[in-house]
Amino acid sequence: MVKREIKIGIIGFGTVGASAIRIMRDNAHKVETRAGAKITVKYIADKDITTERKVSVDKNILTTDAMKLINDPEIDIIVELIGGVEPAHKFIIEALKKGKHVVTANKAVLAKYWEEVMDTAKENNVAIYLEASVGAGIPVIQSLHDGLAANNIKSIYGIVNGTTNYMLTRMLEDKKDYAEVLKDAQKLGYAEADPSYDVDGMDAANKLVILSSIAFDAVVDLKDVYVEGISNITRKDMLEAKSLGYVIKLLAIAKDCGNGQYDVRVHPTLIPADHQMASIDDVYNGIFIVGDASGPIMLYGQGAGGDSAASAVVSDIIYICRNIVNGVAGKVPSVFFEKGADKAKIRNIDEIDFRYYLKFTALDQPGVLASIAAVLGNNGISISSVVQREQDEGKKVPVIITTDKAREKSMRAAIAEIDAMPTVKSKTLVIRIEKGE
Ligand SMILES: NC(=O)c1ccc[n+]([C@@H]2O[C@H](COP(=O)([O-])OP(=O)(O)OC[C@H]3O[C@@H](n4cnc5c(N)ncnc54)[C@H](OP(=O)(O)O)[C@@H]3O)[C@@H](O)[C@H]2O)c1
Q: Spelled out in words, what is the top-level CATH class assigned to the domain 141-302?
């Protein structure tokens, strides 16, 4: 039987774009069998069409004009792989309005414009697929959307940023401090010259918006997500956590709190050393999902890299082709929820209870520990364990306290009071503890 030909246009001939073309070429038989169609790349748009890429292509299909692809009536699928917010956002919206199905790997656009992108796809009866936007080749989007479709998702714990996971792992394993592991990450190409998007937690927050919006069938607004990065974490904290039976990870956490409220946040977290997430090291990503029927599920793999991301992009192209062949593309629920979905009510972090790891740096003199304990007690915070280390330089001692569950706003009030005490010499480090259930 002669297969139907489906024409696609790729915007962005960089790392992922080139890998996607190579995979479609190398695995053509498998890809086209699964797609039920012959897939032809009609055009590739990039700002630079002269530099040699990882794959060679017919020069006649290269263009610098992305709109040429979007306006081409023969093209059914636009694959957006340029990254950044603009003009990627404009290209995605224009393509959907022109009746094209869209595949994108762009977490920044999706986190910022989730509602607009989904509503535009729905209004135009076209599909938007976004598997590579979180965890690259790890099939977490399909898992949440389809594989776990029968479940109410109770919680998600994600290690979704490889840069910070590499840095935290190396601090512990290589006995190096933050500045050194950051330099190593930059040398290896895992961190940008300006690493703030990764180390401040924003990359993880963007990905969490996507995961939680799909998991909870509601629009999670990036502005409602509490975000804290890893720049205050030292190698000593990693070691202290280890001695207490924990590992520190930058976790992207989303929980259904009941009553239509959700808890969605990104911050360094102590998790038990025997939890599955604790063994996800270096640049690897992992997502631990608890469904009410499925129970806990863990996905693990390379959360970055051209081939890994392109694996997800090509799989999205295959899904859309199959649906085009079956006459249902844009009609089956490939759009992640109904148009006009509710905004998710995100609980303010001040109203959430946590166990805490606290590191105080105080003068080594009688009564200091008792005064810290008194402030915690006055704020209704009970202590679970205390470790007082030997004097640091300048007669200061680090005091590590773990607490029982306490309300975040009480903890903030207590820490403000403690940090103002003349015997307390540095800002107290506060890290939340999670069991990961
Ligand atoms: N690489 C990964 O490991 C990975 C993993 C998961 C998801 N992703 C996502 O995949 C997407 C692509 O990433 P990538 O690593 O392939 O990026 P990349 O290597 O920088 O490639 C992007 C390409 O698009 C070009 N471009 C930028 N603006 C354009 C425009 N207006 N019109 C035409 N071409 C334009 C760029 O040209 P210039 O270089 O000249 O600007 C570059 O050649 C991003 O959304 C990224 O977040 C990447």
A: alpha beta
The fold adopted by the segment(s) 4-136+306-325 is: Rossmann fold (3.40.50)
110 CB less than 6 Å from ligand 1?
A: no
Task: Determine contact, residues 102/77, Cβ cutoff 8 Å.
Answer: yes
Report H helices in 217-305. Answer: 235-243
Atom 38 of ligand 1, residue of closest alpha carbon:
47
Q: Do domains 4-136+306-325 and 141-302 have the same CATH topology?
A: no
Could you tell me the pTM of the whole model? 0.96
Residue numbers annotated as active site: 207
Does the beta carbon of 185 sit less than 6 angstroms from any atom of ligand 1? no
Q: Which DSSP state fits 147?
A: I
Whether residue 411 has its Cβ less than 6 Å from ligand 1:
no
Identity of residue 63? T
Domain boundary assignment for the chain: 4-136+306-325, 141-302, 349-433
Q: Identify whether the C-beta of residue 66 lies closer than 8 Å to the C-beta of residue 45.
A: yes
Compute the distance from residue 213 Cα to the ligand 1 centre, in Å.
24
Residue nearest to atom 41 of ligand 1 (CA): 47
Exposure string of 314-326, with b = 16+ CB inside 10 Å and e = fewer, is bbbbbbbbbbbee
In the CATH hierarchy, which top-level class contains the domain 349-433?
alpha beta
Residue bearing the CA closest to ligand 1, atom 37: 47
User: pLDDT 10s per residue in the chain (437 long)?
Assistant: 668 999 999 999 999 999 999 999 999 999 999 999 999 999 999 999 999 999 999 999 999 999 999 999 999 999 999 999 999 999 999 999 999 999 999 999 999 999 999 999 999 999 999 999 999 999 999 999 999 999 999 999 999 999 999 999 999 999 899 999 999 999 999 999 999 999 999 999 999 999 999 999 889 999 999 999 999 999 999 999 999 999 999 999 999 999 999 999 999 999 999 999 999 999 999 999 999 999 999 999 999 999 999 999 999 999 999 999 999 888 765 556 565 568 899 999 999 999 999 999 999 888 999 999 999 999 999 999 999 877 665 678 899 999 999 999 999 999 999 999 999 999 999 999 999 88
